[in-house]
Amino acid sequence: MIEYTEGIYNYYVYIITNKNKKVLYTGVTNNLRRRLGEHKNKLNPNSFTAKYNVEFLLYYEHFGWIQLAIAREKEIKLMNRDVKEALINTINPEWNFLNNLF
């Protein structure tokens, strides 16, 4: 996990995938446990994550300020798949599902 210690709040930028690890989705939240549950339970059945069964955590970064988290989310969303895969490999080279950490 990459951690930026500035700030006093908890925000997470995360990358999740589907069971076959074919789809990557990047998001930001202040409560990663709750957000993963929302993806798993398809809280919004018309969403991209519900449509492609994206619910398994592969990567996350922690931030103390929402502004930094949002900027990082935008940066990751602009990356191509190869760069995202390299980013995931920095902390999770086996691509294990990390949901149990939250």
Task: For this entry, give a set of tags.
alpha+beta, globular, 102 residues, single chain, 35% helix, 23% strand, 4 helices
Estimate the mean pLDDT confidence: 94
Question: Secondary-structure element order, as H and E?
Answer: EEEHHEHH
> What is the number of helical segments per DSSP (H or I, 4+ residues)?
4
The main sheet orders its strands as 1-4-2-3
Largest sheet: 4 strands, mixed
Number of strands: 4
Termini separation (Å)?
A: 13 Å
Characterization of the model:
With 102 residues, the protein is an alpha+beta fold. It has helices at residues 32-40, 48-51, 66-77, 81-91, and strands spanning 2-3, 11-17, 24-29, 56-63. Strand 2 and strand 3 form a beta hairpin. The model has no long low-confidence stretch (mean pLDDT 94).
Write the layout of secondary structure elements.
Elements: E1 2-3, E2 11-17, E3 24-29, H1 32-40, H2 48-51, E4 56-63, H3 66-77, H4 81-91
Parallel strand pairs: 1-4
Antiparallel strand pairs: 2-3, 2-4
Brief overview, please?
By secondary structure, this protein is α+β, with helices and mostly antiparallel strands.
